[in-house]
Every structure is written in C-alpha cells, then in structure tokens.
Design goal:
Layout: H1 2-27, H2 37-53, H3 59-80, H4 86-106, H5 108-111, E1 124-125, E2 128-129, H6 133-155, H7 158-168, H8 170-175, H9 180-206, H10 216-229, H11 234-249, H12 258-279
Antiparallel strand pairs: 1-2
Helix pairs in contact: 1-6, 1-9, 1-10, 1-11, 2-3, 2-4, 2-9, 3-9, 7-9, 10-11, 10-12, 11-12
C-alpha cells in the first residue's frame, strides 16, 4: 500500500518537474511574467486525451502533437502581448489562462465541460503498455530527465545568454541590433512545448481530466515551486518540486478530516513561500533577486 503511494508521489514529482522547469525558462531565464503556463499544461492534457480517445491516435503521436500544438499557443500568447511588460504582461497571461479554462469548461461538445474526460488510456507503444504505475514511473522519470537536460543545454547555450540579456537589459540588447521578440517567442514556444508534454503525461497517468485541474490554484503551485527553488535555477526548481509536492502529502498521515486537509495544504504552500522569501530572497539555489 505505502509502496504504491510513494510511486504515485514520485510520478507527480516527475511531471511537475517538467512543468516547473519549463516555466523557469520564461520567468527566470528570460524575465517574462508568464502566468498562463498552467493553460499550456491543460492544452497539452486535453490535446493528448482527445487525440487518443476520439481520433484513435497512438500515444506517442498524441504525446508529440500535444507538445507541438501547445507551442503554437505559446507563439500566439507572445505575439498578442508583445507590447506589454512586467505586471501588465502578467495580467494579460493570467487572462489567457482564464480564457483557456473557460473554453475547457464551456466547449462541451469537445471537452465534455465540467464532466471532464474519463477513461483516458495508459500509454502504449511498441507493443508495450504502461499499465502498472511502476512502469509509468520509469517512463515519466525518463521523459523528465530528457526534458530537463534539453532545457539545461538551452540555458547554457549562446541562445541562453540572449535569454538572460533579454531579462536583464532588453533595451540594451535591442540597441545592439538583436531581435528580442524572436528570443521571446522561441523561449515561449519551447516552454509551452514541455508544458504540453507534461500535460499529456498527467492526463494519461490520472486517466481523468476536467477543467478544475487547470485552475488558478495550479498557477500558484507552479509559481511557488519556481520561487522556492530559485529564479533561473534548474536544480533549485527540481529540488523545490520534490519539497512542495511531498511535504503537504505528509498531512495525510495525520488522520485529519478532508475539511482540514485541503486548506492545510494551501497553508503549507504559503508558509514555505513566505519563509523562503524572508530568509532566502533568491530561493534555494536562485541566481538573481526576486523583484
């Protein structure tokens, strides 16, 4: 019993590692206040689920298409908000998140609305199905490692230096003749791609998705992970994902009623976030200050 529960938690850690590190690409490394990241997560989840269930696509095709389709929305979001900066950009991307949530909730003919999509199949490829959670954990961990490695390579490449320059001094970078819009849309598309494949993994693991899985509370969760781990720190984001996902789960062992369990998790998120901001303004492994 406890072994299955631990495997479940580790799978969630792997999925949210991909989601949080991909957010750090835009928020930490490029300085884009992207509060619409959870919308990318939802788009990837619904795309993969609908392709496999309604269109009969094999999982691997649905998995890849979910990432690519989500990256298109990343470009659309950057293009629509190209003249906005700072808090205004944050509000606009948050609005994008609400728009996607409303579509998932009200486009009943496609998404089934509040009823959600049940019975999503487990991943199957090359004649092998990941029906056991232990097998899914190995697959999710492998995808997480590959995804994080790719994002690490991006951030330590010459393009990664352009990302950092866009964050630190966009006007100066433009004065040198660099196209900062091109940097932004490339980063957002990469970030959205990995959020999309994280959503695909989430949908095929949980086997049921509905719009409530992609609400504002999830935005807060992912932002908390990034801030606790440290802005522009991949290893910090990975460490914070494990902390933020695992620590609130310990409440389940205290035999608390469900009316206390849910709010208790949110209180723990808030306490961890406030403690980090007060004691370590850069986060656990952050490289820049939170401003």
């Amino acid at each position: 019993m406890i072994e299955g529960y631990i495997i479940h938690i580790l799978i969630l850690v792997a999925i949210y590692c991909i989601l949080a590190v991909s957010l750090n690409l835009t928020l930490g490394y490029t300085g884009l206040m992207n509060m619409g990241h959870i919308a990318f997560f939802g788009i990837g989840a619904y795309t993969s689920a609908l392709l496999t269930m309604a269109a009969g696509f094999p999982f691997l095709w649905a998995f890849i298409i979910a990432g690519l389709f989500t990256s298109v929305f990343g470009y659309i979001l950057v293009y629509a908000t190209r003249k906005l900066r700072g808090d205004y950009l944050g509000l606009a991307t948050l609005g994008f998140s609400f728009v996607i949530y409303s579509l998932l909730l009200n486009w009943i003919s496609l998404t089934r609305g509040p009823l959600g999509i049940p019975g999503i199949s487990k991943p199957c490829f090359f004649g092998f199905c990941l029906s056991a959670n232990a097998a899914f954990l190995v697959f999710a961990a492998l995808i997480a490692l590959i995804s994080i490695f790719i994002m690490y390579i991006i951030t330590h490449s010459p393009f990664g230096r352009l990302m950092a320059a866009t964050r630190d001094d966009e006007i100066g970078l433009r004065a040198l003749g660099k196209d900062t819009f091109k940097v932004k849309y490339k980063v957002m598309m990469v970030s959205a791609f990995f959020a999309g494949i994280a959503g695909s993994l989430f949908a095929h693991y949980i086997s049921y998705i509905d719009p409530s899985s992609f609400m504002l509370t999830e935005v807060i969760l992912v932002f908390t992970i990034v801030i606790v781990g440290g802005i522009a720190s991949i290893k910090g984001t990975v460490a914070a994902t494990a902390i933020i996902i695992v620590v609130p789960e310990l409440l389940r062992f205290l035999n608390l009623p469900s009316t206390i369990l849910g709010p208790g998790r949110q209180i723990i998120y808030a306490i961890i976030l406030l403690t980090i901001i007060l004691l370590r303004p850069k986060g656990l492994f952050g490289k820049i200050d939170l401003e």
